Amino acid sequence: MTRAGRSGSHRSKKKRITLALAPVAALGLAVPLMYSAGAATPDEVATDCRTDSDTLENCEFVPVQHKANSLGPNERVTTVTDNCGISSAATKTFSGTASVTRVIQLEDGFNTDGSTKLGNSVFEIGVKFATQEFNIKRDDTTSSFSFSRSDTVKADHIAFFMWSHKRTDVSGFLRATYKEAQDGQTVFFSPSEGAATVHVFYPQILTNGTPDGRLWLRNVKCGTPQAAGLQNSTRALRTEPGFGEGGENVTDVEIPLSEIQAQ
Fold it and tell me: Residue 261's pLDDT is what?
């Protein structure tokens, strides 16, 4: 079949190379080359699913296992407040927004959204994993909450708020059905049937509709490499070490989400 959007005619080239080989070599290599020339590779399947290729009849995510209450990326969600050179603690006001969205992460590291054929399957699987204990966000719209609160910045420290959302990690594989058969079959897998290396992360949502997760105030000692990296960063937001993982110059204090929701 013709593979739209792929470079060249690599499969036909492999066939011509086989014919050009010496007879003895051709006998040994013809079968594997002809087989690989006609079948969709795992990388091709993942790319077709991610790009919603018109060669596909359908693409499905097949779940194999899941883990609830896993934590997402550690994100800085407020600007850095500077109390460097001051010998006493100070009360500062912090304002920020914590947000989540469903993520479909393919084996090769690419993410895709819910606009593809794959998105329908992912949504239906989300219905299966939404329970009374774990309310999850099945679609790919963003859920968030904003906050503004006053907290203590330690003497000669900088401070900011960190956020890591709770999510249900469902892992499995892709099953792609093509419109035209290749080597007599239309169904191919990525990375393989029964694998658990494609992940769909469903954010867990509180009963009021806002994201569940861990929010904490981080104080960093001025004059340390950790503080210098933050003060010199040109990125408004960046990924940081997790809760309690910042090192000896870093102090983390978790803020219960109930305090945020009560404001």
Answer: 63
Mean pLDDT confidence for 122-144: 90
Find the domain containing 170 and state its range: 42-259
- Domain count across the chain: 1
Q: Is residue 157 part of a domain?
A: yes
Which tops the pLDDT comparison, 65 or 1? 65
3-state secondary structure of 219: strand
13 falls within a domain: no
CB 95 within 8 A of CB 168: no
pTM for this predicted structure = 0.79
Q: Is residue 129 part of a domain?
A: yes
Q: What is the rounded distance in angstroms from the CA atom of residue 128 to the CA atom of residue 177?
A: 22
Q: Which ranges in 59-162 belong to alpha helices (H)?
A: 117-129
Q: Give pLDDT, residue 236.
A: 53
Residue 24 lies in a domain: no
Arithmetic mean of pLDDT, 94-103: 94
Instruction: Give the burial string for 112-142 (b: 16+ CB within 10 Å, else e).
Output: bebebbbbebbbebbeebbeeebbbbbebee
